[in-house]
Design brief:
Porin
Length: about 240
């Protein structure tokens, strides 16, 4: 066999081998192309579309505010009326008397209110003529805790009171008019149970009041007899009907 015929046979073999490799490469390429998923660009919202609102980093939105009945928020007004009974050593000279007053303040939250209290006690001395008038006027700071009882309309209120008082006694002896006035510090506690009825609450209020005398003055027929030191503490307990607005 000559070199030219050998070259011709080798060339034919190389061509066949090249075609086979090329066909195999095309087969692999078509398979890989079928599995390939091109990455399309992201779809943006059209112009003017409102973006989602996210809270800024570190922002915490607290619980929604409590909107209860009117008497559990804002301005507090609680008038009351009832009867006061003296207790202790000084009670022997007095009977039960009439009482009227009110608390006025503001709810700091559902459970706490800060209030001032104004009270008139019409004391009732025993064994004296009907022209005797004995009235004690109390001015006090009286905060209250408002404690709901379960999930119903009932609430317990409780709180101390501290302030000052003035007591005026007017009477007549043998045609002369006397006016005695006393003053001092007062202290006590309020406890009540109220039931909600729409925008108001109605219930009962129990109060203890102690009045500590520090000074006393006397006037006879509009003539000032001067003032002296007074001592002693007068204790009363009272039961009242109350309305909380």
């Amino acid at each position: 066999m000559t070199k030219s015929s050998l070259r011709s046979k080798n060339g034919s073999a190389h061509v066949l081998l090249g075609l086979a490799v090329g066909a195999f490469s095309l087969l692999l390429a078509s398979s890989a192309f079928a599995q390939y998923q091109p990455a399309y660009p992201p779809q943006y919202p059209p112009p003017g579309y409102p973006p989602p609102s996210y809270p800024p980093p570190g922002y915490y939105q607290g619980p929604p505010p409590f909107y209860g009945p009117a008497y559990t928020r804002g301005l507090l007004v609680m008038p009351y009326v009832g009867f006061a009974t003296p207790v202790g050593g000084t009670s022997d000279g007095y009977d039960t008397g009439f009482r009227i007053g009110t608390l006025l303040g503001w709810h700091l939250n559902r459970l706490l209110s800060m209030n001032v209290e104004f009270t008139l006690d019409f004391l009732n001395p025993k064994g004296v003529s009907s022209d005797v008038s004995d009235v004690a006027t109390d001015f006090s700071f009286s905060p209250l805790l408002h404690l709901p009882l379960g999930y119903g309309p009932l609430q317990l209120i409780i709180g101390p009171k501290i302030g000052f008082f003035e007591e005026n006694i007017s009477y007549s002896i043998a045609g002369d008019s006397y006016n005695d006035s006393y003053s001092g510090a007062m202290f006590g506690v309020n406890v009540g149970l109220l039931a909600g009825m729409g925008n108001i609450a109605i219930g009962g209020l129990f109060s203890y009041t102690g009045r500590h005398y520090s000074s006393g003055c006397e006037t006879v027929d509009n003539y000032d007899n001067g003032c002296t030191y007074a001592s002693g503490t007068f204790h009363t307990v009272s039961f009242n009907g109350a309305i909380l607005f």
